[in-house]
Design goal:
The protein has 8 helices and 4 strands. It is mainly alpha-helical and 180 residues long. The longest helix is centred in the last third of the chain and has 17 residues.
Length: 180
């Protein structure tokens, strides 16, 4: 059931954003010349997959977790894209092809060894990673791998259709609140 809803909402999201995609594409490529970025992430059962995003960082930025990056690596337009989560629209494609769900633990980089260990201990890799989830609506980042893994585990244990829609709605409210 969740998979069908994921696909439906992802296709709907891409259709709704279709008129804006050329502008997002342009904004993402203005300072870098390359609008689309992909990064290897850890997926379900620790299987690596390519996560797609609109580029928000300079081309020569080191590949590491966002919270470890200098703000100087983020482009002027990239900051706007990140503020409104527009850089993540392409992750809807990841959902459609089955690498991700709309709701689940955020996928980590292969280099985030501490987080991978903590998530593995708690069975977090038994589910697909997601675009949003409990940790995201609570503002918990990858800076604290133990707390993040515990929160992801809690979300998985309490997961149901009602929580799925709750996380999506709260995420949208947080994004739209940034505009006011």
């Amino acid at each position: 059931m969740i998979r069908v809803i994921d696909i439906f909402l992802s296709i709907l999201g891409l259709i709704l954003f279709l008129p804006f995609l050329p502008f997002i594409f342009l904004a993402a490529s203005i300072e870098t010349g390359s609008a689309i970025f992909n990064k290897l992430r850890v997926g379900k059962n620790q299987k690596p997959f390519l996560l797609y995003k609109f580029r928000s960082m300079k081309i020569n930025s080191p590949i590491r977790a966002t919270h470890l990056m200098s703000k100087t690596n983020i482009t002027k337009y990239g900051n706007f894209l990140r503020t409104y989560k527009l850089d993540e629209i392409l992750q809807l494609y990841n959902v459609i092809i089955g690498n991700m769900s709309l709701v689940g633990p955020r996928p980590c980089l292969i280099s985030q060894k501490k987080l991978i260990i903590e998530r593995k201990k708690r069975g977090v890799f038994q589910v697909k990673p997601g675009i949003t989830g409990l940790a995201q609506i609570r503002g918990i980042t990858m800076k604290n791998p133990v707390l993040l893994a515990k929160t992801d585990s809690k979300m998985i244990k309490q997961f149901n259709l009602s929580n799925y829609f709750y996380y999506l709605i709260i995420t949208l409210m947080i994004i739209f609140k940034k505009k006011s």
